Amino acid sequence: MRNILLASTLFLAAQSPFTAAHAQGVPQSSDPAVLTPERVFANPSLAGPVAKGVSLSPDGELVAFLRSREDDVDVLDLWAAPTGEGEPFKLIDARALVPDAGELSEAEKARRERMRISARGVVEYSWDEQGRYILAPLEGDVFLAEREGGAVRRLTETEADEIDAKVSPDGNYVSWVRDQDLVVYDLAANRETAVTTDGEGLITWATAEFIAQEEMDRDTGYWWSPDERYIALQRTDESTVDVIPRLDITGGGASVIEQRYPRAGRPNAVVELYVHDRQTGRRTKVDLGANTDIYLARVNWSADGGTLYVQRQSRDQKTLDLLSVDPATGASKVIVTQRSDAWVPLNHDFKALDDGTFIWSSEESGWKHLYLYDRDGRRLRAITSGDWPVKALNGVNQETGEVFFTASMRDGQELPIEQQLFRTSLREAMTPVAVTPAGGWWSASVNRTGTAFVGNYSDLNTPSQSGLYRADGTFVRWIEQNRLDATHPYWPYASRRGEVTFGTLESHGETLVWQMTTPPGFDASKSYPVVMQVYGGPSGGGVKRAWQSANNQLLTEAGYIVFRLDNRGEGDRSAAFKQALHLKMGQPEIEDQVLAANYLRSLPFVDDDRIAMMGWSYGGFMSLMAITEPKMGLASAIAGAPPTEWSLYDTHYTERFMSTPELNVEGYAASDAIPRLPNMTGRLLLLHGMADDNVIFENSTRVINALQENSQPFEMMLYPGQRHGVRGNERQLQQWRTYLDFLDRTIGSRAPAAQD
User: Fold this and answer.
1) Contact status, residue 322 vs residue 271, Cβ threshold 8 Å
2) Which among 692, 693, 741, 744 is annotated as catalytic?
3) Which of 345, 403, 623, 666 has an alpha carbon 20 to 30 Å from 236's alpha carbon atom?
4) CB 227 within 8 A of CB 305
5) Domains 49-194 and 347-484 are alike in CATH topology
6) What is the dihedral of CA 710, 713, 715, 720, to 10 degrees?
7) Active site residue 724
8) Using omega within 30 degrees of 0 as the cis cutoff, is the peptide bond preceding 82 cis?
9) pLDDT tens-digit series, residues 399-432
10) In whole angstroms, what is the distance from residue 705 CA to residue 700 CA?
11) In whole angstroms, what is the distance from residue 379 CA to residue 399 CA?
12) Distance between the two ends of the chain, CA-based, in angstroms?
């Protein structure tokens, strides 16, 4: 369950489409500075010119990035900019190459849903390691842009979609998956060759299975060796997975999808790993052990291509083995094992170095840190340490021995609301040095040599900016400065941003962080309703000293205080902080949210009787749990696409935190929303996409049925054709008109408490 906060839409009761602003709770003002839903969900985007997917060419001389079109924010073009002199230029114009984008295949729709890609056009791209080409899949076909001259070459024009396209490390080949088989295209010979030919039905080659895409943050199923001789590729057999019939209801009708969906406690797909030798044409099976009920977690090559490293995770996720594999024979041996009494988290911190050593992270100290190992898995030294977690390994300069990583830390102390890029040494113990300034939220993409990085930054007063920097943090040039000035699309509304404050609460020895945004013209002598935004589940956390979404301003413009708390279990914190919800999801999280509600009621400017909660996905589950918790005392709650009974959800996510329904009967029962419904303290707004293939619709229909059987009133909005997130400006405009209407009637100006 990848984090979706309020990325979907809600309910519009039984009213007609929006006709009068007041009827929907939209702020009434002739002041153009008042932000409205109509402006938020219109072009150009209020976020300004934000560069997406920024990356440096391997030689560091060119920056590529995705930029939304001014005439359609949902379509992306590929841009590039020299790192020295020169202006950015459009490399691939999506509309020019494919003027009439057709319907994507179901496989590509599902893959994009797993990757949370909602845009069209150029949604991903990749460099070859020589920096000669940029490969860009576009609307189901594959295009190759040459760096010299900028010529764009179309490689495919087929009825079937080519998915997960890659350019080989030396730029001699392009590969993709078509109709469940892997294909390699020789750029010199202009000829494609099928690597596999028997992919059909329940057998798929070179594609990450559903559970890997949705829950393991693994979006590919094949890996080129650095010398282009080998391709490691997975074979997936879904015949063992239960068929869960799922209605796919659109505005034009309905169909039944026989979805292979691995529910908690039930069988997974059988995944095997092979190595294809391009010199001999032979395919060799990798020895992953006798037990087939495991997860293929990660696959990496050594720098010389002589060793294949495979991370194998046990079904209960308490053991993670690193295998060293001989690609010629498939023989493997375990060289490192990580264990936990709760679960061992997956990450992307594995890095094979040129001298045969490798970097990998572990939480064995109670915090995630980086360690250096020799080629046989013997630990050589800790690279980082302290009571704070490494967020990610970002890059290595193997000549200087510098290691770059991101962390939420200042002066050796954890600081969850900020994030910076740091450097330390691969060779000797040293205190990490901050590469980027403190005070906001940084992410970074370091080039392969560790000599430069693209830094993305924002803070409360700075929209997302992208710049090019040297490894020591020296600024080189803007990629997208996105300056908040009179030319910025958000500028007319900036003066009415609410004030954001941060604070902490203590719960069971853990420090919880919160943020509060007050409405424009806030007067502490008055009383205000509060909207508690929530996700609550295992994620990166939502309380950040970063640019705030324009969506939040719609709530403050409507007169609400907006409050968010990152409860135990949420955020990249210590192992103990994350594992607080182990075997009991929905319990410590709600306990912490009760603590937050009590804190809010202690404030003189909060109306005790007008507090609501809103959330989507895990946040929808939290909203349901909160509205049925008498100690919360909520007046209303908005629950979008909520998991309502965890045995209906998938294996890898659910079993990581809850074990199986058979082994944790009490925990599953306590997290079921149905028995709690008679305890509802206020009005409920329930909504769901009618083609959701992640949190399937049954999660909501069982709540609908129970509420009706209990004769309990509630409100509902269903979204035909929408999956786990609701997409497009039109529907999201309806979403926020709906939000504002429901909140206005339950805690706002039309709420009974407000009228008394």
Assistant:
1) no
2) 692
3) 345
4) yes
5) yes
6) 40
7) yes
8) no
9) 999 999 999 999 999 999 999 999 999 999 999 9
10) 9
11) 21
12) 42
Of the candidates 408, 458, 724, 741, the residue annotated as catalytic is: 724
Task: Give the Å distances, CA to CA, from 172 to 73, 169, 188.
Answer: 34, 8, 7
Minimal CA–CA distance to 51: which of 78, 32, 27? 78
Secondary-structure class of domain 22-44+489-751 per CATH: alpha beta
Whole-angstrom Cα distance, residue 570 to residue 265? 24
Q: Which is more confident, 756 or 514?
A: 514
CA-to-CA dists, residue 182 to 62, 141, 160, 169, 234, angstroms: 30, 15, 13, 17, 10
> At a CB cut-off of 8 Å and minimum separation 6, what does 335 contact?
322, 323, 324, 373, 376, 377
Q: Is 617 a catalytic residue?
A: yes
Nearest partner of 174 among 235, 126, 110, judged by Cα: 126
Both tokens of 455, joined, read: 């830094």
What does the block give as tokens for 150?
A: 């900028």
pTM equals: 0.92
Amino acid sitting at position 392 = A
Of 45, 574, 617, 700, which residue is the catalytic one? 617
Distance (Å, whole) CA 266 – CA 260: 11
Rounded to whole angstroms, the Cα distance separating 373 from 426 reads: 11
49-194 architecture in CATH? 6 Propeller (2.120)
List pLDDT tens digits, range 484-541. 999 999 999 999 999 999 999 999 999 999 999 999 999 999 999 999 999 999 987 8
Whether 508 sits among the annotated catalytic residues: the reply is no
Q: What topology does CATH give the domain 347-484?
A: Neuraminidase (2.120.10)
Query: What is the DSSP-derived secondary structure letter of residue 122?
Result: B
Distance (Å, whole) CA 751 – CA 509: 38
